[in-house]
Specification:
Length: about 210
């Protein structure tokens, strides 16, 4: 997993509440277990017309927001089914940070496991950032995970955010569940060697 330390990029405003995972990535994309190639399906029902052409009014089809790396949205983002393809699609599109007043629990945790930083802020703060992302001539924000601060365009006052210390550590170090396990590979190897000596019949049966 790619470490997350400081992210500088365009922020796209998405003033919608209860955006579920089917809206983020429709069910017909779930046939794959590959993490790449899903970005084109992100917000498919919103981004495309029935004939497959882009919907010109959708924020991610407009400049400069089609190059967004940060998404600012409404309450309960990521609700619905627990599909991990939702954060995969965001990541494949290029979005590594989502800012909202609240998230669905499973989606929230899946974000951290896939290198995406979900930031929870009070609704009035999110509304202010969303308005700024929509109206600023150059809506580039900087999300500093180490300092836990969001730097805004135009020199406006930075916004502080809180992150669980363990989840913050994992993002900074680029550690997913596999990475965390591999940190203990020495202890795992020692345990297996000890087991082979003390209970060799278990390994004969396994063979």
């Amino acid at each position: 997993m790619e470490p997350f330390s400081k992210l500088e990029g365009i922020a796209a405003p998405l003033p919608m509440v209860n955006v579920d995972t089917d809206k983020i990535i429709p069910a017909h994309w779930l046939k794959t277990i590959e993490r790449s190639g899903l970005g084109v399906g992100l917000f498919e029902s919103l981004r495309y017309r029935e004939d497959g052409s882009e919907a010109p009014d959708f924020i991610l089809n407009r400049e400069p927001w089609r190059r967004a790396r940060i998404l600012i949205t409404g309450e309960n983002f990521g609700c619905g089914s627990s599909r991990e393809h939702a954060p995969w699609a965001l990541l494949d599109y290029g979005i590594r940070c989502v800012i909202a007043p609240s998230f669905a629990d499973i989606f929230f945790n899946n974000c951290f496991k896939n290198g995406i930083l979900p930031i929870v802020l009070p609704r009035e703060t999110v509304d202010a950032l969303m308005a700024e992302a929509e109206t600023a001539p150059d809506p580039v924000f900087t999300v500093d995970l180490e300092g836990q601060v969001i730097l805004r365009p135009g020199g406006n006052a930075p916004v502080h955010f809180e992150v669980d210390p363990f989840k913050r550590h994992c993002l900074l170090e680029g550690l997913d569940d596999v990475g965390l396990t591999l940190q203990k590979v020495g202890k795992i190897d020692s345990y297996e060697e000890k087991s082979r000596r003390e209970k060799p019949w278990l390994f004969r049966l396994a063979a």
